[in-house]
Amino acid sequence: MVALVEMKTPRSVYVERRIRDQKLLKKLIKALDEDEGIRMEGRIPDLANGGYVFVGFYRGSYCVNLCDRVRDTSSRRYTAGSNDRWFYFEDFPGLWKFLRPFIQKPLRAWLY
Question: Quick one: which H or E segment has residue 17?
């Protein structure tokens, strides 16, 4: 027997967890799985609205994507734009040294 469920409101496929301080940010970056990532609002002068900073972990290396942060006028939300730049790091100390200048204060970051 198959049951059909009708959903009246759309649901998110994933849940984001807010990261409120750098101590937790460091801990979560070090513990990233390949199916997780971190999104931060950046302070990168040559990217729109400071840009977004995405951090992931894949096959033993950290991957960082910097891109524009663009406001969608219809939804009134920010979304990732173009102007992508990719960087790879073998260890956490090298990654952290790279990230520190780009982290907005106060921290606005999420684990997804």
Answer: strand 17-19
